[in-house]
Every structure is written in structure tokens, then in C-alpha cells.
């Protein structure tokens, strides 16, 4: 009798366990189409994880400024698609635009430098040179007059206090938005015994207004082309909800947040934190010297962690 009850109990338990198991989603739907669209994968978006490092554990830190150039093949997934009406994918600039419309704060750069100015109030509702929000015409420079409604990608309604997206000028603007500037901090945490790299802020650069005839004009052009700065941690929830367009493998889904956290992009250094408040093009006057300085800084960052463990 006890043996029979044990068999029945095991049978019931097996049925219950089978019913409780997750039913896997089939690759093909009822119409025979592959379930590889963004909507099908949206339920599996990653979670934004922020690691809080204690200030007492950080024994070394260094600021670095990098350029992410969309013309490099490794960064194509950040640039495409350029169309704003793609039903499944948005490029990085469209994600940032939608985040601004949703109310994400953006900031100006500091006076006389390219550094972000997070101490001032957010600049989402006023005109910034190179920015695409509504405002009054800028004096003396018709190229920066964005007060005409047909030229604005993002409209701000002061009565209803909300933003809206303008489809028509977007594609013209986004095709020339081929670079981003990032502010990063590289630091060593003795608690984890490793070197960490954290993106602090990211700024779209509008390359259509850049004219460079020699290396001495690099910093002036870079300063002029900055649209605005975005605190990267405020942008991450929007990046985590958007998959990058696949590259040769439709089943390989990577969100923009994963793309940045895994550093799947390529970039080059334009400056570092230093007592002289100088950027590489300020003192390296030829392209060969600029490349040498970029390699020097990159090598120092690469060797720092290794040198800590030498005896």
C-alpha cells in the first residue's frame, strides 16, 4: 500500500513539475515567420545594473575623453538605421532624441572648454549652439538659427510644457551626426582589485559645421560641434530598451546598453585630465604627434593595472 502511494505521489509530482516548467517560445510563429523582430525580444531586455564603488576603495582615477566615429565599421550598429520610421530599430541618435522628448535632462558644456557642466541647471528648454531644440534666433550666425519650425527636430511647446518629434528635418540632421564625444573615468578599485572604466557623459557632435584646414583648428572645431552633454547613467534605461540593428546574424541581439558596457565600439583619445587643462591637439601640432600622444595615453592606461602586480 505504501509502495502504491509512493508511486502515485511521484506521478502527481512529475505532472505538476512538467506543468510548472517554462514553455519555450518557438522560433517560427503560426504563420511560419521567424520570431526575430525587436518586439519578440522586447520581453527579454536586460536590466540596468549600477555598481556602487566606495570612495575609500578607489585609490587611483584618471579622466579620459574619447571620440566614437560612426565611419568606423565597428560602430555601424550605432549609426544605422538612419530612417526614423523603422518599426524595429532606432540608431543611437534617435534613442537620445526620444529620451530628450521624454524629459531626460541635457546639459551645456563648460565655458571655454568641452567638459560637461552638470552644476548648472539642465538646458532642455533653451537654445544651445548646435542644438536642435526650439528657441529664439541666434545673433550673427544664420546657420545656427533653429527657430524656424521646419528646421527643428524636437519641438518644445511652452504652453503644454512638452516636447514633440519633427520627422522632416531629422534625416538630414542624422546623416551628418557621425561622431560622439565621451567623458570617461578610469579608476582602480582595491576592493575588486581591478581597473574599471565608466562612461560619465556622452555628447553628439554635429560634423556639418566643422571645417578643418590644419591640426591647429581641431579643438576649435570640436568645441563648436558639441550639441549638448547627456549624463550616461540617465540615458542607460533608454539604451537598455533598444536593440542595436543586427550585424550579419539576425538572432544575435545586443541592446545599446550591452553594446557600451561590453565596449563593442571603437574610439580614439582626444584628451585626458591634466594640470595644464590641455587637450592633445593643443600641444601636438601634427597628425603624427597626435597619434603618438594617443598611443602613449592608451599604453599608460593599459599598463597601469599590470604594473600594480609586479614584484
Tell me roughly what share of residues is in helical segments: 25-40%
> What is Rg?
25 Å
* Head-to-tail CA distance between termini: 71 Å
Largest sheet, strands/sense/barrel: 5 strands, antiparallel
Mean pLDDT: 77
Quick one: overall form? globular
Class by alpha and beta content: alpha+beta
What does this entry show, briefly?
With 311 residues, the chain is of the alpha+beta class. The protein has helices at residues 2-20, 38-41, 76-79, 92-101, 170-175, 218-225, 232-239, 256-261, 280-283, 287-308, and strands at residues 58-69, 154-157, 162-165, 179-189, 194-205, 230-231, 268-272.
Fold and architecture overview:
This protein is of the alpha+beta class. 29% of the residues lie in helices and 16% in strands. The protein is built from ten helices and seven strands. It has helices at 2-20, 38-41, 76-79, 92-101, 170-175, 218-225, 232-239, 256-261, 280-283, 287-308; strands at residues 58-69, 154-157, 162-165, 179-189, 194-205, 230-231, 268-272. The chain has a five-stranded antiparallel β-sheet. A hairpin with a 4-residue loop joins strand 2 (154-157) and strand 3. It is globular. The termini are far apart. 24% of the residues are buried.
